[in-house]
Design goal:
This protein is of the alpha/beta class. The protein has helices at about 50-60, 80-90, 105-110, 130-135, 140-150, 170-180, 210-220, and strands at about 5-10, 20-25, 65-70, 95-100, 120, 160-165, 190, 225-230. Helix 3 runs parallel beside helix 5. It binds iron/sulfur cluster.
Length: about 230
């Protein structure tokens, strides 16, 4: 496990909380629209050690309320991540996990150990082309993604699903399938694609607000409280 990035303060990543976001290097997916492409391989440089992170969090006590653990894909290092989360929770911080859902057993284990206060799972696309959208066709297991989603929907921990929506990848058919798949879930957000300048493959663009609203109307048929998030255009 390598800590490759730290956002010292965010009001956006942990719903309703002032938080810091910790970026772990490495991911088992290669989504072509990934905006953290420099974190995906093993060669991403380490920004700080876990001890240095904990020292930072100790100093920010009383200012921050939560810590978001994101990536890359944090569930790739179950024991190291569990150890880090445990120490963060000992400092009375809330912990949020961002995951692509590819490792349901790790998600379940971290939750059952009481290490996660809020889980955010990507729903990358409609199920029929999920592997292609994740960029890993060999050995991809959609059943693992479905297992993670179904487990979260049992409601053992507060959670959200979200889809980053990319012109050139997603169409209305994706949202029809997503609506059928995770209908009735606690929270679901449609997010617009933003070109961070660090995207894995170039050539993608954003949908307009009106186009995103049309997708939203589709999912609202089964997830009435679904929202568009983080789109200021
Ligand atoms: S967007 Fe895809 S490739 Fe990038 S970190 Fe998330 S799951 Fe991994």
């Amino acid at each position: 496990m390598k800590i490759c990035g730290l956002q010292k303060t965010t009001l956006l990543d942990y719903p309703g909380k002032v938080a810091a976001t910790v970026f772990l290097g490495g991911c088992n997916f290669r989504c072509p629209f990934c905006h953290n492409s420099d974190l995906l391989g093993g060669s991403a440089p380490e920004l700080m050690t876990s001890e240095e992170l904990l020292t930072f969090l100790r100093r920010r006590h009383g200012v921050l309320e939560g810590v978001c653990i994101t990536g890359g894909e944090p569930t790739l290092w179950p024991e190291e991540v569990a150890g880090l989360m445990s120490r963060i929770k000992e400092m009375d911080y809330l912990v949020k996990l961002d995951t692509n859902g590819g490792r349901p057993q790790v998600l379940r284990d971290l939750c059952s150990r009481g290490l996660i206060d809020y889980a955010a799972m990507d729903i990358k696309a409609g199920r029929w082309h999920y592997a292609e959208v994740c960029g890993v066709e060999d050995g991809f297991r959609l059943s693992a993604i479905e297992e993670s989603a179904a487990w979260l929907m049992e409601g053992r921990v507060p959670y959200e699903f979200r889809t980053t929506t990319v012109k050139g990848i997603h169409t209305a058919a994706d949202f029809t399938d997503i609506a059928a798949w995770i209908g009735g879930c606690e929270r679901y957000f449609i997010q617009g694609f933003v070109d961070s300048g660090n995207v894995l493959k170039s050539g993608f663009s954003s949908y307009s607000r009106a186009e995103l609203e049309a997708f939203l109307r589709i999912v609202q048929q089964t997830i009435p409280n679904a929202e568009i998030r983080g789109v200021d255009y």
